Amino acid sequence: MQLKDILQNIPALALQGSTDVAITAVVQDSRKVGVGSLFVAVKGTQTDGHQFLAQVLEKQVVAIIYEADIDISAFGNSAVTWIKVRNSAEALALAACNFYGNPSKKLKLVGITGTNGKTTTVTMLYRLFRALGYNVGLLSTVENRINDEVIPATHTTPDAVTLNELLAKMVAKNCQFAFMEVSSHALVQQRVAGIQFAGAIFSNITHDHLDYHHTFDEYIKAKKLLFDGLPKTAFALVNKDDKRAAVMLQNTAAKTYSFALKTGADFKARILDNSLKGLHLDVNGQEVYCKLIGEFNAYNLMGIYGAAVLLGEDAQEALQVLSGLSAAAGRFEQVVSAEGVCAIVDYAHTPDALQNVLETISQLRTGNEQVITVVGCGGNRDATKRPIMANLACKYSNKVILTSDNPRFEAPEAILADMEAGVAITDKPKVTVIVDRKEALRLACSWAKGQDIILIAGKGHETYQEIKGVKYDFDDKKIVEEIFGV
Q1: Was domain 333-484 assigned CATH 3.40.190.10?
Q2: pTM of this prediction?
Q3: Span 3-98: which CATH code?
């Protein structure tokens, strides 16, 4: 593609060189630069692409987009086209959209943002629309999919180039719909700039990622960016029971809709029964049974149902198909031993998500069984939630084991000390601290008797444990299955 076509809608502050040159790839990683590449120097959270300009010039790069105040004559390469912009991250996203033919405009793409429920919602929407007979794409924390082809996921929301490449592949495979998790990081980092959404869903917002956003207000503003950018042809669907729902809609041009359990809404549900077998709901006057468990999943189901109807699907048929679908991997997944011990593996890694799962377990228990919770917190992430997580585990459990999650580059003992600070003196007798997560799971299973419930929180679908930059094989569900012998 010609550089001049890739630069459409990208305002240049300065331009040196020709735009009538062929580009073979749009690249932000200096290691991936090849002959004919357009390199975009982005100031990231870990590295700054401007530091690698000399290196990319040695690799026969054709053009460079940059934002820093640098003297380009110092590099002495007159054959290269230099384009200075206000924001390289935004320019990268727009260039990627143009390079791949603006694929988001060629299918109906729905994004979901919120603290909890994103993966379940996009996964269930993907399964629902596949069951309805459509070609569908999925972009999630767990995996990416193009129809039935699985593509591993490395981020909740891919970088701008990968995102557009995946969307272009979906278009090539005749996907009519795609469903995508949109993280607050991706919104702030302009990864979805230039992407056209047919609709957006807001699930909820609670305490998370303050290591990155610094304040709760900034976190809210980050989520809101998705709705601010919607065109008037799109729909904006929000959880009306969350007090931040109105904030999300303040500046949107989209048509607005709501779902709720506790207040009046366009898509309203009432829980008739909630058990370990699933939910029995009244949805806009229609009764339906679903395999998902807990009030938090009732909200997820309403977001899914609402989106399906707003995308033009028959309400009755959508509910019928939804009733037969299972939860996403690592979301309230159950493993039951021969003795009747129920282990629940869940991705709950925020205070709100942990409380939702523990409250659901409290509602489901008869009162005669123990609840044993195994929980940890990730390293190099928001440390303020650590004592809160431990406190919540104690509040709803008979026994608690604090253990490692993904310590990353932090000492596990330091993370656990932060968690222990949230344990009340009266709760200390019920708490055990074990750094080794596998030993923690073994101990929890050894304590449990028939009908007891073990909650294993924090990692969910993850099949690894990240320690000092290395990912080791570690799957909570498989380990418990081994211990149970099932």
Answers
A1: no
A2: 0.83
A3: 3.40.1390.10
